[in-house]
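Worked example 3 (structure in, sequence out).
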């Protein structure tokens, strides 16, 4: 858990930086190497330690909207940003979208879509205007959040395998 927080913190520190390489070490001499390449629209961050490595690709727009398990972009939605990760063979993705469709329509479409791909919806949350569903399949999981947007819906889909 501590390593996950350390990696997340390093990603935040490097989010505004250009290409660079930084090495962090703790009191015991354990090193974590963080390399970032790219610009504000597309960047790759690679984190390497004795425990393994993780790579995160962050893109503005649809250029790299790759979702695991055959999950799809909502029909007609505009992709705002994507993030794909690979940590020692475990892959994941997050896609943020905008759609003219109403939140209930988006949620209903995704419910049918994920169930047809073998996911079991285990959680359903409504908080104010935001609605979310989450579920699992084999060694994978997804979370979908839908909230009202300027013209319809803001959609965040996160999926990954472990």
């Amino acid at each position: 858990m501590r390593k996950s927080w350390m990696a997340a913190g390093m990603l935040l520190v490097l989010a505004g930086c250009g290409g660079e390489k930084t090495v962090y070490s703790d009191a015991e001499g354990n090193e974590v190497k963080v390399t970032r390449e790219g610009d504000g629209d597309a960047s790759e961050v690679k984190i390497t330690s004795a425990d393994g490595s993780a790579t995160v690709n962050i893109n503005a727009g649809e250029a790299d909207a790759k979702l695991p398990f055959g999950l799809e972009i909502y029909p007609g939605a505009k992709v705002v940003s994507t993030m794909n990760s690979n940590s020692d063979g475990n892959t994941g993705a997050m896609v943020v979208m905008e759609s003219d469709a109403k939140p209930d329509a988006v949620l209903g479409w995704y419910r049918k879509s994920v169930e047809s791909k073998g996911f079991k919806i285990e959680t359903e949350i409504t908080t104010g205007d935001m609605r979310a569903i989450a579920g699992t399949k084999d060694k994978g999981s997804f979370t979908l959040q839908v909230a009202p947007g300027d013209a319809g819906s803001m959609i965040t889909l996160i999926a990954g395998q472990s």
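Notes: The first helix runs from residue 2 to 14. The first strand starts at residue 20 and ends at 25.
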